[in-house]
Amino acid sequence: MSVFERDSSDDVARGAPAIIVRADVPGFDRRDVDARLAEAQGLAVAIGIDVKASQAFRVRQVKPATLFGSGQVEQITDLVRQHGAELVVVDNALSPVQQSNLEKACEAKVIDRTGLILEIFGERAATNEGRLQVELAHLDYQAGRLVRSWTHLERQRGGFGFLGGPGETQIEADRRMIRDRMARIRRELDQVTRTRGLHRARRQRAPWPVIALVGYTNAGKSSLFNRMTGATVMAQDMLFATLDPTMRQIALPGLDKAILSDTVGFVSDLPTQLVAAFRATLEEVMFADLIVHVRDIAHPDTEAQRADVMDVLGELGVLGDEAGEGGPDYLEAWNKIDLLDAEIRTELEHAAQREGDAVLISAVSGEGIDRLQRVISDRMTAGNDVHQIDVAVNDGAAVAWLHEHGEVLSSHAGEQTMHLAVRLSEPAYARFLSRR
Question: Does the annotation flag 91 for ligand binding?
Fold first, then answer.
């Protein structure tokens, strides 16, 4: 059951037999149509829809009334009857008129890609903020469809508008309720954002570097997060398994402490309502010191998925200006190499060496994780100063502390004093001095 309150007829029935269709418009999409259908099926399965069949239709000219051509609508209707489908998932954005006309033609419930993703987000949101963000997105989506859905009443009553017929009254009442609820949610989210800002300010005073994991949904971010932190964040072979950012403290080689953040997965054609609504949720990415872009390098559409993630990061202003100035450091983790054969892995290893900003890993097997952690640590400590430190030769605790929180470059022991050259962050150096 989704978190937003609405008429029960709007709910997607879990376990309902369904078909998935997509309008393949030439020049509109950069990815393979079969991969798009497979992704849509994954989205549907993520909320328990029983997908019986899927099919793409080549649409040379979009029809304003139905999106598909009349002959294609007949084929879709035949598929509905053939499979006893109660639901038609259209893997495109539909106007309210198109959705209504398709439902009449197919005699089945129809939802579009935006509605499907909203359903998934409604189920997956685990925190109060996540639920508020989803409800705000759904209300925004609903508001855009409200006026059109009541136009038949406006035509029937009060043609000039000033007489205020029943249809117009209902429209205004619904508009007002949606506007009021959206305003209340925004106020609550503002408070959540301020609270998170205070938490972030406290972390910055520490200060510990923040490393944000981003990536296409199902790329393996949560599996990598669990591998690096020992946490138990939901990590499943399921789209949008994580919706709320999760943060944990981690230790890295030569680095005092760091904060690792797991974030919501990206997806192609992310509804604009959700890009705006989840901006606050993605704030941790905007304020991160390093972005680690986790990619499913074994996926046939991995390059298109990368482009989708980079597009959204660009929309959010995360990547800085056009030259990349002002943004956080960036690194790619090419995940799921355990699914590749030896020849492809060798090719990718050479490609990663050429690019210099990529590390091959398997979050499942653990392969490459140590190297990824070293690379992250090197990025985070690149600006750290080398300090010349003298400690008593019998002060084993001090030497151990320096090894744990910094990078000991050299050490020379005298009769009573040990001299060490240690690369340390300024906060770590200050803490070392304060403990002596």
Answer: no
